[in-house]
């Protein structure tokens, strides 16, 4: 038996009506024929809630004694023995009496779910464990009874029960929540308008976050890349400068103006690890954005505007917040800047906000070239000092005589300044130019390129050596800074990767997309082959670049074992990037193994399902087919008996029984054969254009004449179907509807055209089917409720849906307004373009 389904009514505050809503759901399910019981409901003396208990079966409670007092709790064992389809359990966060089998009621509910019982429960937003501190700060009351958020998040369905603070206070004043002697105290304390408004906001935001999780899952499963502005998501582009704090606060204010706004701060580091950002400042900004309820992300990419836009679109963001450029006016000759580029390339789906700040136009380092160790602006200043400084100094010294020693010290100072600014190359240039000028202007013989005194040769050599030494130290420090920045970026990436390995959250395609995004590549693919002589095959791929069939065709390839490789296209990566890339490659191989293990598990489940179907088939053959055979044999034996003289009426009755048994056998065997064809994928529809009024009436031959009404307009367009399959589908639907319709209530078969589709609706007024069972009724060997074994083997609806899908149509179940079930068969109108999908894929093998 599978695990039960959990539905939770989440109340924004006490008294909003969550228990009333749960009991109303119980009545609705009972009216549909569902076996529903009240496992535990506390009405708290509220008359309207107490009335809702009438008509519902209540499981007796278990009595417990604690400290001389008697308490009643839900009797889990009694509920399990009763084994209902649905159990109503109030107050999910309730703490059981000490000595109970479970400390919390939500643990009792877990036992019921594990036993296959569906549970409908209630809980208030203030009882969620993660919101305890927030609720206490709002209301001043600490909630002692809490339920872990994960328990509520795992619910199959959450319905928010909400009410405006004014309406809730009126309900309180009318005595519908607490007794009259407690109303005034409650209204002036917990039920103040401010408290209720804050609790309502908490409930709405919590539910909105869960809806957002569903949306992310859907976009990921369906690979939706277009931005859906379902909520405001604001991406803040950070440079690591001090203006980042201003941008984060501005984005937080923008998020507060929208419903459920979210802030995502992102810092983009170059793939070579070079950065002018302060790690300390980035840590401060990370803390700030997390304190404001946002998230911080570290992304690697050489093209900063493109990486920022890719991240924003991947996160389904609606706005981007950037700071005004810190570059000076002359620096714009190197390009328009990140802000202007992002605004130009953002498209109509993304709004870009350029925010001013105190650091505007105060200067910033220009983007560094790959392989450089210092900022470009710093290198330019170093070359300016190294090349122009010595001649300028020589002109100044021509007006005053300070002596050779002092002149050399001044030239050495210029060389050291060039080294500190630009590193090794500008310092060498300064030393070379300075030594030539010293030799020509200040070393005897003057104005000649020779040196008469050997001591001056030593002095000039020391001068050059000091310049080279200082510049080497500066270059080494820059190299160490570069390495530290790169290692920090690598550590963050590897930390993310390790977390996914431990949690097993990332699939192969998602991981390859992460690789492509991290290294700014066009595409990433995982290739494998069975042996050295076999061709390469693609196990997974991400990106829109050219397809790669062999590792040799890629710009970058990293081997994973003997017969697997990670191949990337877009550009050639430096050698130092391959260390991180190798970690991604190893994780990609793990993801592939995990996916294959999952497929093996799915195949094992399919085999188990096949065994279940075979068992059900044997049961059907042994009982449902044996019953009419036994009836036919008994009637034939009676007719052939010489001991009894049968009247004409008796003989006709026996022959009629034989005919009914044979018809029933024909119908059952036909459905079994049809199901076998569907499961083995051997159904090949012959699609042609037909009129519904030619096929549908032929499908009504197996039901009484007055049991079905037809409403098929003559103006309907023709449909593209297989007439034989359509007739069998409609016949099974009509037979099922007639079987469950009450006496005197005719089944309606109606058709209508909607756009390029035609819908055939089979409407009955029977007991209906609960929402959670609307898909299960299409599974093979399913009978509704307590239908007798002789009612069939439960294949009619499964065959009808299989034939509908074989014709590129759909079959779904809906509630009939006023009670009952409506089967909606959607078919393609003639001339419409069919959606691309496989005709029939075998899911299970029936033998």
Walk me through the structure.
The protein is α/β, with parallel strands linked by helices. Helix content is 46%, strand content 15%. It has 24 helices and 24 strands. The strands form six sheets. The chain has a six-stranded parallel β-sheet, with helices on both faces. Strands 11-10-9-12-13 form a five-stranded parallel β-sheet, with helices on both faces. Strands 19-21-22-24-23 form a five-stranded mixed β-sheet. α14 (376-397) packs antiparallel against α15, α17 runs parallel beside α19 (578-624) and α18 (508-518) packs antiparallel against α19 (578-624). The longest helix has 50 residues, at 454-503.
Q: Identify the overall geometry.
A: elongated
Number of helical elements: 24
Overall mean confidence score, pLDDT: 77
**What class, by secondary structure content?**
alpha/beta
Largest sheet: 6 strands, parallel
Oligomeric state as shown: single chain
Unreliable residue runs: 361-372, 786-793, 836-847
Q: What Rg is obtained from the alpha carbons, in whole angstroms? A: 39 Å
- Strand order, biggest sheet? 3-2-6-7-1-8
Strand content: 15-25%
| Number of strand segments | 24
- Overall helicity: 40-55%
Q: How far is the N terminus from the C terminus? A: 23 Å
How are the elements arranged and paired?
Blueprint: E1 6-11, H1 18-31, E2 36-40, H2 47-51, E3 57-58, E4 62-66, E5 69-73, H3 76-82, E6 86-89, H4 105-114, E7 118-124, H5 132-139, H6 149-153, E8 157-161, H7 165-173, H8 180-188, H9 193-221, E9 233-238, H10 244-257, E10 262-269, H11 279-291, E11 295-300, H12 304-314, E12 319-323, H13 338-345, E13 351-355, H14 376-397, H15 404-422, H16 424-442, H17 454-503, H18 508-518, E14 523-528, E15 537-543, E16 556-559, E17 564-569, H19 578-624, H20 626-640, H21 648-679, E18 688-690, H22 692-695, E19 708-711, E20 719-721, H23 723-740, E21 747-754, E22 757-763, H24 796-806, E23 810-815, E24 821-828
Helix pairs in contact: 10-11, 12-13, 14-15, 14-16, 15-16, 15-17, 16-17, 17-19, 18-19, 20-21, 21-24, 23-24
């Amino acid at each position: 038996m599978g695990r039960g389904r959990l539905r939770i009514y989440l109340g924004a505050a006490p008294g909003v009506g969550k228990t009333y809503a749960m009991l109303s759901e119980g009545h609705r399910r009972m009216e549909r024929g569902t076996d529903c019981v009240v496992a535990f409901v506390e009405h708290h003396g509220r008359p309207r809630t107490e009335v809702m208990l009438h008509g519902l079966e209540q499981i007796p409670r278990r009595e417990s004694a604690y400290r001389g007092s008697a308490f009643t709790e839900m009797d889990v064992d009694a509920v399990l023995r009763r084994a209902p389809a649905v159990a109503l359990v109030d107050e999910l966060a309730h703490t059981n009496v000490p000595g109970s089998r479970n400390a919390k009621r939500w643990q009792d509910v877990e036992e019921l779910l594990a036993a296959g019982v569906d549970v409908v429960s209630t809980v208030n937003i203030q009882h969620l464990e993660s919101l305890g501190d927030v609720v206490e700060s709002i209301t001043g009351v600490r909630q002692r009874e809490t339920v872990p958020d994960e328990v509520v998040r795992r619910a199959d369905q959450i319905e928010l029960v909400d009410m405006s603070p004014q309406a809730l206070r009126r309900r309180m004043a009318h005595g519908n929540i607490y007794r009259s002697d407690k109303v005034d105290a409650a209204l002036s304390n917990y039920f103040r308008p401010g408290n209720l408004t804050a609790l309502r906001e908490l409930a709405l935001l919590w539910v909105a976050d869960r809806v957002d999780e569903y949306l992310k899952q859907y976009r990921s499963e369906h690979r939706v890349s277009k931005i859906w502005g379902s909520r405001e998501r604001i991406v803040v582009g950070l440079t690591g400068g001090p203006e980042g704090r201003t941008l984060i606060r501005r984005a937080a204010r923008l998020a507060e103006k929208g419903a459920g706004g979210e802030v995502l701060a992102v810092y983009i580091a170059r793939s070579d690890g070079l950065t002018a950002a302060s790690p300390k400042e980035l840590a401060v900004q990370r803390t700030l954005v997390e304190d404001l309820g946002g998230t911080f992300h570290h992304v690697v990419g050489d093209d900063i505007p493109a990486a920022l836009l890719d991240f924003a679109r991947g996160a389904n963001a609606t706005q981007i917040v950037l700071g005004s450029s810190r570059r000076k006016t002359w620096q714009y000759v190197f390009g328009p800047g990140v802000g202007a580029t992002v605004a130009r390339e953002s498209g109509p789906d993304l709004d870009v906000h350029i925010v001013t700040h105190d650091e505007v136009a105060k200067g910033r380092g220009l983007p560094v070239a790959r392989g450089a160790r210092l900022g470009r602006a710093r290198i330019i200043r170093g070359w300016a000092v190294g090349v122009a400084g010595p001649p300028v100094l020589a002109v100044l010294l021509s007006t005053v005589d300070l002596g050779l020693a002092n002149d050399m010290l001044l030239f050495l100072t210029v060389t050291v300044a060039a080294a500190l600014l630009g590193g090794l190359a500008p310092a060498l240039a300064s030393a070379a130019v300075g030594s030539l000028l010293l030799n020509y202007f200040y070393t005897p013989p003057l104005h000649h390129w020779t040196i008469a005194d050997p001591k001056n040769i030593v002095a000039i050599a020391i001068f050059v050596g000091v310049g080279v030494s200082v510049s080497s130290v500066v270059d080494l420090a820059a190299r160490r800074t570069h390495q530290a920045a790169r290692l920090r970026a690598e550590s963050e990436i590897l930390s993310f990767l390790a977390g996914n390995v431990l949690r097993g959250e990332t699939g192969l395609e998602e991981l390859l997309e992460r690789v492509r995004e991290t290294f700014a590549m066009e595409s990433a693919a995982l290739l494998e082959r069975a042996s050295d002589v076999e061709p390469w095959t693609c196990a997974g791929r991400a990106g829109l670049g050219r397809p790669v069939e062999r590792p040799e065709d890629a710009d970058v390839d990293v081997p994973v074992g003997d017969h697997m490789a990670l191949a990337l296209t877009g550009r050639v990566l430096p050698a130092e990037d391959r260390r991180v890339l190798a970690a991604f490659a190893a994780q990609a191989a793990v993801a592939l193994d995990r996916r294959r293990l999952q497929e093996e598990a799915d195949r094992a489940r399919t085999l188990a399902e096949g065994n279940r179907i075979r068992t059900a088939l044997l049961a059907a053959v042994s009982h449902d087919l044996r019953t009419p055979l036994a009836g036919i044999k008994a009637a034939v034996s009676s007719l052939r008996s010489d001991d009894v003289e049968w009247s004409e009426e008796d003989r006709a009755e026996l022959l009629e029984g034989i005919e009914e048994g044979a018809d029933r056998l024909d119908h059952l065997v036909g459905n079994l054969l049809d199901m076998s064809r569907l499961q083995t994928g051997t159904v090949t529809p012959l699609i042609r254009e037909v009129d519904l009024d030619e096929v549908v009436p032929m499908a009504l031959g197996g039901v009484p004449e007055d049991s079905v009404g037809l409403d098929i307009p003559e103006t309907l367009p023709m449909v593209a179907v297989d007439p034989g399959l359509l007739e069998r589908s409609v016949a099974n639907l009509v037979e099922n509807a007639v079987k469950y319709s009450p006496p005197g209530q005719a089944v309606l078969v109606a058709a209508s055209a909607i756009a390029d589709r035609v819908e055939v609706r089979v409407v009955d007024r029977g007991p209906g089917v609960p929402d959670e069972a609307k898909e299960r009724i299409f599974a093979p060997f399913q009978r509704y409720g307590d239908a007798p074994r002789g009612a069939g083997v439960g294949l009619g609806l499964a065959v009808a849906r299989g034939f509908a899908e074989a014709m590129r149509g759909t079959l779904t179940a809906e509630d009939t307004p006023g009670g009952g079930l409506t089967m909606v068969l959607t078919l393609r109108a003639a001339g419409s373009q069919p959606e691309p999908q496989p005709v029939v894929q075998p899911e299970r093998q029936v033998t």
